[in-house]
Design brief:
Blueprint (H helix, E strand, L loop, with lengths): L2 H31 L3 H6 L3 H36 L4 H25 L4 H25 L2
């Protein structure tokens, strides 16, 4: 197995673990903030109800994006094991890298930047690079 295939498998495994942890965190956060009658009664103002709704939407977004991350990681592992399938994997990795950079820009713009976002962008960009390298190897370049 070539070094770029090993890199792709390693980065995909990191992405898989990171995404599974994020899914667990997203589901846990959503379950803990679901509106119960007590929380709705305690939140008397419209602003409080909007903030509860925003937390719920953000946890759903975290979970959905993490499910996408599991899919991308599985495709990366598949592509590392079978380089003839790298076209689809490269397209998926490219879409993910674009979404991650957009997430980074949005986080910086809103002031909600965390180190996990930077790590996610780095992992996605390394995965994209590894996909291009494995694809080059498969074409015999």
């Amino acid at each position: 197995m070539s070094s770029s295939r090993k890199l792709l498998k390693f980065v995909s495994t990191i992405n898989l673990v990171f995404s599974i942890i994020a899914i667990i965190m997203g589901v846990t956060a959503f379950v803990s903030c679901v509106k119960t009658p007590e929380s709705v009664l305690a939140a008397t103002s419209a602003t409080a109800l909007k903030s509860i709704a925003m937390v719920e939407v953000s946890t759903i977004a975290l979970t959905v994006f993490s499910i996408w991350g599991v899919f991308v990681a599985a495709m990366g592992i598949r592509g590392a094991n079978n380089p003839t399938k790298m076209g689809f994997v490269t397209v998926i990795a490219c879409i993910t890298a674009i979404l991650s950079v957009g997430d980074l820009i949005a986080a910086i713009a809103t002031g909600s930047f965390t180190i996990s976002i930077a790590i996610d962008v780095l992992v996605d960009l390394i995965m994209l690079y590894a996909c291009f390298e494995v694809r080059k190897e498969g074409k015999g370049a």
